[in-house]
Structure formats: structure tokens, C-alpha cells
């Protein structure tokens, strides 16, 4: 039985169909989730934010801000993973100060987007949680 990952069967040319492109994209997303602990953390926190949004009955505009914040963090994490993998591919096991700089900048983008997500979360949820707390007391 032939393996899907045999070197003579690996694709080096363009995709031949939309479905083939979709499969490659899906494999990339699965790889990031499986291999990157931080992406799994972002997914869990994003899910918690979505559940909280449902719980406090966000408006349509609020849902859009929440979705933007969640997707921005995940997009930055994907780009961070890309940068790390390219640097590792080029430098191998050797230290390179430029590779470190690239990795640090990509990680900084993740932190920056996460800070935006926290800000959005505070703006969206603080008034609603405060209102719920006042109703309880």
C-alpha cells in the first residue's frame, strides 16, 4: 500500500482544484492547532469569550468586535508560527540573531493583538457584568 507521504508523491506544483487548495489550508490549520500550545490556549479563551457573549446577550455590533478580536489574535498566532518555522528551516539548529529578532517581532504581534482582545473584552463585558452584579445585590 502506497503511503500518502512518500517523497515521490509529495506535491510540488500548483493546486489543481479548489478542493485540493481547501485540503491544504485545512491541514495547515490542523497543524497549527496540534503543534502550537498557544493556539490551543487562544481557541479555548476564544470559546470562553463566545460563551460569555451568549450569556450576556451581546448586540450584533458587539459580536462583530468580539469576533474581530478573536480572529485577530488567532491570525497573529498563525503568522507567528509561520515566522518561527521559516526561521527554524533557514537556521537549522544554529543560533542566528536575525532569526531571533524575527521571532520576537512575530511574538510581539501576538501580544499586541491579545492586548487589543483584552481591551475589547473589558469594553464589552465590564458594563454587562457590572449590571448583572448590581441586579444580584
Walk me through this protein's architecture.
The protein is mainly α. It has one domain (20-136): Helix Hairpins. The protein is built from four helices and no strands.
Question: Based on helices, strands and strand pairing, what is the structural class?
Answer: mainly alpha
Here the CATH topology equals Helix Hairpins
User: Radius of gyration over alpha carbons?
Assistant: 20 Å
According to CATH, what is the class? Mainly Alpha
Layout of SSEs?
Blueprint: H1 18-35, H2 37-55, H3 60-91, H4 97-136
Helix pairs in contact: 1-2, 2-3, 3-4
Using brief descriptors, characterize the structure shown:
mainly alpha; Helix Hairpins; 0% strand; 137 residues; single chain
TL;DR?
The chain is mostly helical.
Amino acid at each position: 500500500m502506497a503511503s500518502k507521504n512518500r517523497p515521490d508523491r509529495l506535491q510540488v506544483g500548483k493546486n489543481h482544484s479548489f478542493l485540493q487548495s481547501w485540503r491544504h489550508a485545512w491541514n495547515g490549520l490542523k497543524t497549527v492547532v496540534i503543534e502550537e500550545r498557544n493556539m490551543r490556549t487562544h481557541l479555548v479563551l476564544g470559546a470562553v469569550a463566545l460563551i460569555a457573549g451568549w450569556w450576556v446577550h451581546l448586540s450584533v455590533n458587539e459580536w462583530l468586535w468580539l469576533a474581530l478580536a478573536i480572529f485577530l489574535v488567532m491570525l497573529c498566532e498563525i503568522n507567528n508560527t509561520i515566522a518561527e518555522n521559516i526561521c527554524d528551516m533557514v537556521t537549522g539548529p544554529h543560533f542566528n540573531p536575525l532569526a531571533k529578532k524575527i521571532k520576537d517581532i512575530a511574538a510581539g504581534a501576538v501580544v499586541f493583538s491579545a492586548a487589543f482582545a483584552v481591551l475589547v473584552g473589558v469594553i464589552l463585558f465590564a458594563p454587562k457584568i457590572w449590571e448583572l452584579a448590581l441586579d444580584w445585590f
